[in-house]
Amino acid sequence: MARPAPALLDRDRLIAAAFAQLEEDGLDGLSMRRLATRVGVQAPALYWHFSDKAELLGLMAREIYAAAYAAVPPADDWQTWLGQFGRALRRSFAAHRDGARLCAAASPALSGEPASHAEGIAAPLVTLGLDQKRALACQAVVISFTLGWESFKANGPMREFLRQMMDFDATFETGLDALVRGLA
After folding, report:
1. What does the H/E/C string look like for 100-156?
2. Model's pTM, two decimal places?
3. Contacts from 17-21 at CB under 8 Å and sequence distance 24+?
4. Which of 6, 22, 108, 143, by CA, is between 20 and 30 Å from 60?
């Protein structure tokens, strides 16, 4: 009996399969070979779609960040937007096993000049009154805090020890609110 032909591969399907692999095996278990097996091809076939694993991780991180930006509701001022962004980013990291760790390790999956990307990244805060340089700085601070917090929370033995002393969600909210107020 003939084996069924694998479905046509495209980047979106491969990235979805990579996220499924991440959920099952974590970041340490995500490999091009395992991903190829998951989609029914040999590993070299993946290199038609990604130059290497670093590019795949960068594209996965881009999806995690894009989901956070898309989840931020409209805001009347930049501090409200920034707080909502921090919360959305935290949810986006938490939606994937090792999501924060993946984003911390991934190389940017961007083409073109960084200046053109900076404009798009800063746009929500520029619309609310900040200049581009300040908007990027404020987002970088919130991203760093949120990324660090979720990485810290994901540390198994330390997490269990600290869980006995604090409420991670309430402490995150306290820190994020203080951070955003401080940026004003």
Report:
1. HHHHHHCCCCCCCCHHHHHHHHHHHHHHCCCCHHHHHHHHHHHHHHHHHHHHHHHCH
2. 0.89
3. 18/56, 18/60, 19/60, 19/63, 19/96
4. 6
DSSP-derived letter for residue 96 is S
What are the structural domains of the chain? 7-50 (1.10.10.60), 65-183 (1.10.357.10)
Give the C-alpha separation, 38 to 184, whole Å: 48
Residue 3, CA distances (Å) to 38, 53, 78 in order = 15, 28, 56
Return the H-helix or E-strand segment holding 94: helix 78-94
126: which 2 tokens?
A: 């520029």
pLDDT digits (tens, 9 = 90+) for 55-108: 999 999 999 999 999 999 999 999 999 999 999 999 999 999 999 999 999 988
CB-based burial of residue 111 (10 Å sphere; 0-12 exposed, 13-18 middle, 19+ buried)? exposed
Please return the burial class of 131, using the count of CB atoms within 10 Å of its CB with bins 0-12, 13-18 and 19+.
exposed
pLDDT tens per residue, range 8-39: 788 999 999 999 999 999 999 999 999 999 99
Q: What is the CA radius of gyration of the chain?
A: 19
